[in-house]
Amino acid sequence: MPKKIDIYVRESKVKLAAMLENEWDKKKAHRIEMLYLIKSDEEHYKRNLANRLGYSRTTVDEWLRRYEEGGLKSLLSISKSPGAPTKFPKRVRQGLLRRLNSKHAFRTYVDIQRHLKDKYDLDLPYSTVHDYVRYQLNIDLKAMVKQNSSR
Questions:
Q1: C-alpha to C-alpha distance for 114 and 123, rounded to whole angstroms
Q2: Is the dihedral of CA 117, 108, 98, 139 positive or negative?
Q3: How far is CA 79 from CA 22, 27, 102, 139, in A?
Q4: CA 140/CA 122 separation, integer angstroms
Q5: pLDDT digits (tens, 9 = 90+) for 70-111
Q6: Whole-angstrom distance between the N-terminal and C-terminal Cα of the chain?
Q7: Which of 49, 23, 54, 25 is nearest to 38 (CA)?
C-alpha cells in the first residue's frame, strides 16, 4: 500500500513559490518544490512525489524526516564531501613555496616534479604538479623564468 504523506508544511505556498523562483541551486530547488507540492495538495503519496521529482522514495523520506526534525534550514543544508586528501602536505607545500620564492627557483614544472620525488618521495604526475603550482599556489613559472632571465 502506498505511503501517504503525513507532514505539516509550515511555510505558505506563496513563500515557497518565491523561494523556488529565486533558488539557483537545483538540489535545494527540488527540496523546496517537494514542500510546495505537498502544501498545494498536488501530491499525497511519497512514491508519486518521488517519481515526480526524479528521486527515490527513500530520498524523499530522508528529506521529509530532516524537515520534520529541523525545519527548512535543516532540509536545505546540503553537506559537501571533503574530497580526496591533499597530495601536498603542509611541510611539502611550505618547502616548495620557500624554494619557489628563492633565487634558486625552478625553471620547469619537470624540475619541480623531480624535486618533489627526490626530497619528499612524492611521485606525482606532471599535470598534478602543474595544476597545483599554477592554480593552487597562483605561481606562473613561465613569468618567473622570464623575469629572472631579464635581470
A1: 8
A2: negative
A3: 21, 11, 40, 31
A4: 22
A5: 999 999 998 888 888 888 889 999 999 999 888 778 889 999
A6: 80
A7: 49
The pLDDT value recorded for residue 117 is 95
Backbone φ and ψ for 4, nearest 5 degrees, come out as -80, 145
Nearest-Å Rg of the Cα atoms of the chain is 26
DSSP one-letter string for 82-131 = --SPPSS-HHHHHHHHHHHTSTT--SSHHHHHHHHHHHH-----HHHHHH
Whether the full predicted model's pTM is greater than 0.85, yes or no, is: no
- The three cell numbers of residue 122 are 612524492
Domain ranges of the chain: 13-76, 90-149
Grid coordinates of 148: 629572472
Cα dihedral sign, 49-55-60-66? negative
Q: Is residue 5's pLDDT more than 60?
A: yes
138: cell is 597562483
Residue with cell 535543516: 74
